[in-house]
Amino acid sequence: MHSLSCYFLLHHHFEALTISSNYISAYSGSVNNDIMSDEREGTDSIDSAEPQTENLSSDSTINPTDEENQFIYDEDSERLTCVGSTFDDIPQSIIDAYASRAKILDLSKNHFRSLGCVKHFPNLEELILDDNQLDDVHTRFPKLPNLQTLTLNKNLFQDIYKLVDQLRQAYPTLIYLSLLGNEACPYRISSVSSNGADLSPFAQGRLEEEYQRYRHLLIFRIPTLKFLDARDINANERRIATQLGDILYSIAETKQSQSNADDDDQKSSKKDLYSPLPSATNQSQTRTLFGKVRHTYNGEGSQGNKFLRDVDL
User: Fold this and answer.
1) Residue 276 maps to a domain
2) In a domain, 107, yes or no
3) Taking Cα atoms as reference points, which of 225, 303, 213, 282 lies closest to residue 251?
4) pLDDT digit string (tens) for 226-240?
């Protein structure tokens, strides 16, 4: 009986060991499978991440030539456009790529003050420079023998005589010109004055006369023009410009010379005024001034016998 009990105990102990070893083997196999599966998934994730790294290297947000991407060139119209940016010059890479091919150049709404970069576009037929910072002082127009259309609306030009002489010399084939929005152009789009008040009929008539004289001047000085500002140039305007152009221009020159002469006269008259002081004095030396000193008694301090009459003394 005792031997039988020992047999059963040994049998159960052997089965337990067998089950434990099988369980450990199964568990270790499961763990190994999980580890291998994780390794495969990690390898797959790394492989799938590699193309993303390549895409980042070609992302346009880190492309150093983003500035150049704002210039758009159309092959069909041979038009180079950069509108609504802050450029004050054209990048050299753009000049090298399109200067010999572009016939239309649109640089509206930028910050251009000089046009030195435009001289590299010898084949231009149309130049659009609206809403920039061009003025009488900093802007010099490069010579473009084929240019026919030029728009300079909303810039800072003030001297129409200086401007028209530059345009005449630089663009011998100019047909279309627009100067609206400059102080040099007296044309008013609306009938409202600068302070918001409506212009009187008399003021509107004076403005129209001034604008017509402006048109006659430009038609006479640039005879190739066929369209100026907002309308065509008709035969009657051209006839009047031919008759009065010299007179209008000579009047302007006379006024300018008279203004300069008046300034010189004022300067010379100031020099002729008498002064007791020498014309040039050393600032470190003392100078004596002559004049009346006005003094009033305000009731403070002793004034002696100043206010006593002779009979009271």
Assistant:
1) no
2) yes
3) 213
4) 999 989 999 999 999
